[in-house]
Amino acid sequence: MTAFVLSDSRAMLGRNLRRMRHAPGLFVITMTMPVTMLLFFGYVFGSAMVVADGGYRAYLVPGLLVATAVNGVMTAMLASAQDCQRGVMDRFRTLPMSRFAIPAGQTASDVLLAALGLVPLVLCGLAVGWRIEGGPAGAAGAFALLLLFRLATAWTGHYIGLLVGTEEAAGQLGAATFMLPLLSNAYVPTDGMPGWLRTVAEWNPISAVVTACRDLFGNGGPAADVSWPVAHPVLASVGWCVLLLAVFVPLTVRRYGRDSA
Amino acid sequence: MSTRCVASIWPCRRARCAACSGRTAREKSPSAGRLLTTLLTPDAGSARVAGHDVVRAPGEVRRAIGVTGQATSVDTDLTGRENLRLFARLHRLRGDTAHARAEVLLDRFGLGAAADRPARTYSGGMRRRLDLAASLLTRPRVLFLDEPTTGLDPASRNAIWEVVRELTLSGTTVLLTTQYLEEADQLADDVALIDQGRVTVRGTPDALKAEIGSYAEVVVAEEAALPGAAVVLDRLTGNRPALDAGRRTAGAATTDASLTLPRLVRELDAAGVPIVDAALRRPTLDEVFLRLTAPADATTGTDTDTDTEGIAA
Questions:
Q1: Distance (Å, whole) CA A97 – CA A223
Q2: For B77, nearest residue in chain A (alpha carbons)
Q3: Contact (CB<8Å) B90/A8
Q4: Cβ A90–B39 below 8 Å, yes or no?
Q5: Which residues of chain A, if any, have pLDDT below 70?
Q6: Nearest-CA distance from A5 to chain B in Å?
Q7: What phi-psi label fits residue B52: left (phi over 0), alpha (psi between -120 and 50 degrees) or beta?
Q8: What is the pLDDT of residue B113?
């Protein structure tokens, strides 16, 4: 079983790498978008932004790393909706493999590509003044957390893609996922938000993951007087990831067993 | 989605080609195919494919089948070769075997020259061939073909037909769904016509044609001679002939095996009907279908295929 998941994942990774070669547009966007946003947010908004120690660009980098992981929702959703629409999904579903293998392969390959996608953002972040100050163990923990979160968002997106079934619908929903990090502490601190909004933003899983990353990278711990998930960021982040996976893995596998036509 | 279930599916012998076809069967008969290929789980009842129960042993069924759906189900962003290699890998063929099998199929389906182009640049016929090739990677015991030639040019259609004939000769059972009864006639040993979710007619193409008999048709020299021709046809066939004044044609179906073409001509001649053409031809499956599924008081006009619509499974 594990061997099959590994070999299916490798086959799906190969598929995604080859697709990228034939249609490099999405890959280029995936790689350059976070960097563009870093420069854009960092220098345009950053010029008017006053945050605690390290400056806004150092504050922004962990937020953007997490926002990039949230893109797993959109990427996986588009991919699975496209496969549904083009009938490839039906072929997958008639293959003699477990219903778990295809989404597992697809999401695993998404995580591997996402790991690659972190590189330009990290390099660019270092160039604009962000520093890893938490030591190698903390940094490794932060990257591991980013990839775990990416895995959770990819499964979430994969399921939604199966549900909506068409590229158009997935594209529109995908644009909406861009809003999710805006409702968190990824780009701005939550302390200035109105009370109710602040609560929503702090209970947004993204906030916990961002705070955990800032903490693990040594960019500053959680502020005082915050909601529980942000006050216990690492524990809450892992909890959110486990929760998302516990919900969306079984839902996806079940959805595979059902006819979508 | 609630789906009206297919009420009956018939047993099908190994290494044969069975076809099903139907009228306005959109939400009924496709379910049969989706059910048999384990894409759909039936609410009740059971079905066996290659000896395996689709509900209890879907894995076994999937190992035994190949499926080519109506929509092309390959990854159009990959090349033909990459598609076949991917699906071979996912079929658990090992690296070398997967590659070798892909080459064999590319060659056999005439896709060798286009093997390294993305499938989105392929013509409709090429895509359909690639799709079919992807279904044959593991030499399935049962192949499901859903409208394999819809929208294809004649050359691509013939290429697909050729492959289906070879497959049945080499021991694969093919379940063909088609809206073209000519296709069923060409390929199938066993044809089922599905109407309202039930198999209404079933048999070999020859048996089905024999059931409604032959069709006698004469063309007369002038329109005024049509009534005379009708009288003769009526007497010989026992059926009221359909008349087409524009084409100066009269025709009627007959199940009388003793009616021969010479006799038809002699009788018309004896009655003084100036005929310029006469034929006693076996019906097409289209005519069989229309006749056997039409409501009792429906169309008595010329048999055409204009309202043969939809399909089955």
A1: 48
A2: A19
A3: yes
A4: yes
A5: 1-2, 52-54, 98, 258-261
A6: 10
A7: beta
A8: 92
- Side-chain half-sphere exposure of B22, counting CA atoms within 13 A: 24
Please indicate whether, in this complex, the C-beta atoms of A86 and B69 are within 8 angstroms of each other.
no
User: How close A100 gets to chain B, by Cα (Å)?
Assistant: 13
The ipTM, to two decimals, is 0.77
- Three-state secondary-structure class, residue A222: coil
- Contact between A241 and A152 under an 8 Å Cβ cutoff? The reply is yes
Q: Is A99 on the interface with B (CB under 8 A)?
A: no
Contact flag A96-B62 (C-beta cutoff 8 Å) = yes
Helices (H), B214-299: 226-237, 261-270, 285-293
Find residue B199's DSSP bridge partners.
B194
Q: How many residues make up chain A in this entry?
A: 261
Is residue A62 included in any domain, yes or no?
A: yes
Cα torsion angle, A160, A161, A166, A169, sign = positive
User: Residue A164 is encoded by which pair of tokens?
Assistant: 């909506």
Of B40, B73, B91, the CB nearest to A87: B73
pLDDT of B19: 63
Q: Which CATH class is domain B214-281?
A: alpha beta
Domain count across chain A: 1
Domain map of chain B by residue range?
Answer: 17-208, 214-281
Query: How confident is the prediction for chain B on average, in pLDDT?
Result: 77
Beta strands B142-146 and B65-68, pairing class: parallel
- Residue among B15, B23, B134 nearest B83 (CA): B134
Any domain includes A102: yes
- Domain residues for the domain of A45 are 2-256
> In Å, how far are A23, A35, B149, B293 from A29, measured between CA atoms?
11, 10, 39, 57
Residues of B in contact with A258 (CB under 8 A): 41
Q: Is residue A121 part of a domain?
A: yes
Give the predicted TM-score (pTM) of the model.
0.75
Of B1, B30, B86, the CB nearest to A11: B86
Pick the CATH number of B17-208 from 3.30.565.10, 2.60.40.10, 3.65.10.10, 3.40.50.300: 3.40.50.300
Q: Cβ–Cβ of B63/A7 closer than 8 Å?
A: no
Instruction: Tell me what the mean pLDDT of segment B117-139 comes to.
Output: 88
The residues in A 222-251 lying below 8 A from B, measured between CB atoms, are: none
Chain B positions contacting chain A at CB under 8 Å are: 1, 30, 34, 37-41, 59, 62-63, 65, 67, 69, 71-79, 82, 86-87, 89-92, 118, 134
Strand order, beta sheet including B242-244: B242-244, B249-254, B214-220, B275-281
pLDDT of residue B5: 40
- Residues 6+ away with beta carbon under 8 Å from A119: none
Residues of chain B positioned with their CB less than 8 A from the CB of A93: 38-39
| Cβ separation B69–A90 shorter than 8 A | yes
Q: CB neighbours of B289 closer than 8 A, spacing ≥ 6?
A: B21, B23, B181, B193, B201, B308
φ and ψ of B190, to 5 deg: -145, 120
Is A261 among the domain residues? no
Whole-angstrom Cα distance, residue B90 to residue A10? 10
Q: What percent of chain B has pLDDT over 90?
A: 16
